[in-house]
């Protein structure tokens, strides 16, 4: 199946395959081709250029994109979309003034979601989760990372990871799986965190490796959850099973998570609402991608990741949703891109780079997705007629996407 898109007003994020991510000043550069054509063959981008060079060879379908733009589909490198039920019950508590930490210490929060998930069958969990996956695909997400971390027992963590595997087998969207057993300390281990970590390392990790259920390992490195020593323990164990770290750091407090992440060559450090000078220095000239989650800051009313500080210091930055029932019940990357511009003072070019090529890198998918590049997956956003690509972040809350193509097929 060969499809030709012609008269594209602007083809956005055109890159050679040598660009793996963009950092610092380069993030302001978003390469485009005006009045362009694009050819996809089956699931792959096979050719593009300006309309004067548009090929006239046979195609199976021609789509006229006059007035419209094409971008690579969004790359959402941090989500928790496999969960059971919701936390609407805590919503009013928070509106009435309780903080995320206060709700958690009352037995709400992650432990609340874990209880529900433990009582939910694998089939039911798949049914609930696929609704969210389909939703984000329609919103333009073409590659996604999904974490475990609401199981908190051996069986339930494996149940979550098996659901992620089933999602992978049943949908065209590219999926990476992350083991986040160290997301919270279960009540029965309250006074024995060490035993919980040993259970994760000795019981769960070998089974994950056996069934090939995860690509990455994560831990909530945060005051009141897991400290730097716990993080070292988990990352060291993960290494034995080939699990690369992608970790939750600096959401509420900076306790050294960035330093341990870099020491273990983490692929990404995520959240970073609280960043100190030391963290920026540590991240400079490393292969670790900082990831900001503005939807979480919006929902919890906590500070936004200081994007200007990070980018102006020469670092790269990726944007992701953090879609989860507790801190970010939304998987809308369009909203994330818009909020990054409006609240984090990123310009449109920086935000689009962060949500595409840098997001792809933060999932280890920089060779497959994240830009308009010959040989990459045909994961495309065809916009409605728009004035410029700035319309996407500018028109916050308004849907500018007309069609989404994943692996060459319309969603
Ligand atoms: O990334 N902070 C840790 N984990 C999630 C929230 C989990 C929850 O509250 O259910 C996050 O924000
Ligand atoms: Fe998260």
Report on the structure:
- With 411 residues, this protein is of the alpha/beta class.
- The chain folds into two domains: 2-72 and 370-410, Urease, subunit C, domain 1 (Roll); 75-361, TIM Barrel, CATH 3.20.20.140.
- The chain is 36% helix and 22% strand.
- Strands 1, 2, 3, 4, 5, 14, 15 and 16 form an eight-stranded mixed sheet that branches.
- Helix 8 links the parallel strand 10 and strand 11.
- Helix 5 (154-170) packs parallel to helix 6, helix 6 (193-211) packs parallel to helix 7 (228-240) and helix 12 (333-344) runs antiparallel to helix 13.
- The mean pLDDT is 97.
- Bound molecules: N-(iminomethyl)-L-glutamic acid and fe (iii) ion (FE).
Layout of strands and helices, then pairs:
Elements: E1 2-12, E2 32-41, E3 44-50, E4 61-64, E5 69-72, E6 74-76, H1 88-95, H2 100-105, H3 109-118, H4 122-138, E7 141-147, H5 154-170, E8 174-182, H6 193-211, E9 216-221, H7 228-240, E10 244-249, H8 257-263, E11 268-271, H9 277-283, E12 289-292, H10 294-300, H11 307-312, E13 318-319, H12 333-344, H13 348-355, H14 357-361, E14 380-383, H15 391-394, E15 401-406, E16 409-410
Parallel strand pairs: 1-4, 1-5, 6-7, 7-8, 8-9, 9-10, 10-11, 11-12, 12-13
Antiparallel strand pairs: 1-2, 2-3, 5-14, 14-15, 15-16
Bound molecules: N-(iminomethyl)-L-glutamic acid (NIG) and fe (iii) ion.
N-(iminomethyl)-L-glutamic acid binds at residues 109-110, 113, 220, 248, 251, 296, 322, 324-327.
């Amino acid at each position: 199946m060969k499809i030709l898109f012609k008269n594209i007003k602007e083809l956005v994020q055109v890159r050679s395959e040598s660009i793996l991510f963009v950092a610092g000043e380069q993030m302001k550069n978003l390469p485009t081709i005006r009045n362009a054509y694009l050819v996809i063959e089956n699931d792959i981008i096979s050719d593009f250029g300006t309309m004067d060079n548009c090929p006239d060879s046979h195609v199976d379908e021609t789509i006229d994109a006059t007035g419209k733009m094409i971008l690579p589909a969004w790359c959402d490198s941090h989500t928790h979309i496999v969960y059971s039920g919701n936390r609407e019950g805590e919503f009013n508590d928070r509106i009435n003034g309780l903080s995320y930490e206060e709700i958690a210490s009352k037995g709400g929060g992650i432990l609340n979601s874990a209880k529900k998930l433990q009582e939910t069958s694998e089939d039911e969990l798949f049914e609930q989760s696929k609704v969210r996956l389909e939703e984000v695909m329609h919103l333009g997400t073409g590659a996604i990372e999904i974490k475990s971390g609401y199981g908190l027992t051996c069986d339930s963590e494996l149940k979550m990871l098996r659901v992620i595997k089933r999602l992978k087998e049943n949908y065209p969207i590219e999926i990476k799986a992350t083991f986040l057993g160290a997301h919270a300390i279960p009540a029965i281990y309250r006074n024995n965190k060490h035993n919980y970590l040993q259970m994760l390392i000795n019981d769960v990790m070998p089974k994950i490796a056996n069934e090939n259920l995860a690509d990455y390992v994560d831990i909530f490195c945060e005051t009141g959850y897991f400290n730097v020593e716990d993080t070292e323990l988990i990352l060291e164990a993960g290494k034995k099973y080939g699990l690369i770290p992608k970790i939750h750091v600096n959401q509420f407090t900076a306790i050294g998570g960035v330093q341990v992440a870099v020491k273990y060559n983490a692929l990404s450090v995520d959240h970073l609402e609280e960043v100190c000078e030391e963290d920026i220095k540590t991240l400079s000239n490393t292969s670790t991608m900082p990831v900001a989650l503005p939807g979480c800051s919006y929902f919890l009313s906590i500070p936004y990741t200081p994007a200007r500080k990070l980018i102006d210091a020469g670092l790269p930055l990726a944007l992701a949703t953090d879609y989860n029932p507790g801190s970010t019940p939304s998987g809308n990357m369009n909203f994330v891109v818009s909020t990054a511009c409006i609240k984090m003072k990123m310009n449109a070019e920086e935000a689009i780079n962060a949500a595409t090529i840098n997001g792809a890198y933060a999932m280890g998918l920089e060779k497959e997705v994240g830009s308009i590049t010959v040989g990459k997956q045909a994961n495309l956003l065809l916009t409605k007629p728009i004035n410029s690509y700035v319309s996407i972040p500018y028109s916050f809350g308004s849907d500018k996407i007309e069609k989404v193509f994943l692996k060459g097929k319309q969603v």
